[in-house]
Design a protein that fits this description.
With 285 residues, the chain is an alpha+beta fold. 42% of the residues lie in helices and 22% in strands.
Length: 285
């Protein structure tokens, strides 16, 4: 449908946009701005998620998702952030772009359940899990960087030590950071087991979802604790623009504050499920 080769890049916006799709002959015309679309500058196609349908200028109550070529869009360079700059998550704007019927999926809307035929919650959790794995990987990158700095004889200024690694507390903090990242990995593996089991069973209970999400946010917590120790070990030189340690820190902090990893929501949902309190706070995961 999209290309004669599998080597194409498709990106998407998670549904936070102001776009509308107007019904026309043989398809729709979509207009609107889609913020934070990662990879939009190198993408071939874009998935436009949950776009309200307009008929004769009036919201019909219908919702569709569609796919459109990025070559037909304008990219507004709005991704000006402290970290994760490499994702290029700029704003994509479509102006009256025609999308044929064969590139459209309709979402029936139920008065109680909301939009139907969307991916199951475990699908969204699986996507979030992959991203958190990358963030834990950034923390491991910070660990590798500091170990290299220490191996090269990084000094502990104004002390009796000729190099920082001679200090017992330096060695202790390094070991503690390594242990915290082991714990983060354990949390990731535990949540992965829950998600894998859900895919096998083609179902995931609310308790299983909240438990998996809590392990994921715990992985972020342990990684953040490790990075803070490593920043202290790296010292001021770790914040030099040429030092990858500060990049790992900036990327981790920016990426870990994504809305899907909100610890406040994760903990509240976890406690509500544990005590069987309805409803769940999160409406996506």
């Amino acid at each position: 449908m999209l290309s004669t080769t599998p080597d194409i890049f498709v990106c998407n916006n998670g549904g936070n946009h102001n776009a509308t799709a107007t019904v026309v002959d043989a398809g729709y015309r979509v207009t609107g701005r889609f913020p934070t679309v990662s990879g939009c500058e190198i993408g071939d196609w874009m998935l436009l998620v949950t776009v309200p349908v307009v008929v004769d200028g009036v919201d019909s109550g219908e919702v569709v998702s569609m796919i459109a070529p990025l070559a037909a869009a304008d990219i507004e360079h709005t991704w000006d952030v402290a970290g994760m700059l490499g994702t290029g998550s700029h704003t994509v704007r479509f102006d009256d772009e025609f999308v044929p019927e064969h590139r459209v999926i309709r979402h029936p809307v139920d008065a109680v359940e909301g939009m139907l035929n969307l991916p199951k919650p475990e699908k969204f959790i699986g996507l979030a899990h992959r991203t958190i794995a990358a963030l834990v990987g950034a923390a491991y990158g910070a660990l590798d960087t500091v170990q290299t700095m220490l191996a090269k004889g990084k000094p502990l200024t104004d002390t009796i030590y000729s190099s920082a690694v001679e200090s017992p507390l330096t060695r202790h903090w390094l070991a503690e950071a390594d242990h915290l990242l082991d714990a983060a990995t354990g949390h990731l593996l535990c949540s992965a087991d829950l998600i894998d089991a859900a895919f096998t069973a083609d179902a995931m209970t609310r308790a299983e979802r909240t438990r998996a999400r809590r392990h994921m946010t715990a992985a972020i917590d342990r990684s953040r604790e490790a990075i803070l120790l490593l920043l202290d070990l790296g010292g001021t030189s770790g914040f030099a623009a040429s030092n990858p340690l500060q990049r790992y820190w900036r990327d981790f902090e920016t990426g870990s504050h994504h809305a899907h990893f909100n610890k406040l929501v994760s903990i509240e949902d976890y406690t509500r499920a544990l005590l069987r309190i309805d409803p769940a706070v999160s409406i996506v995961q």
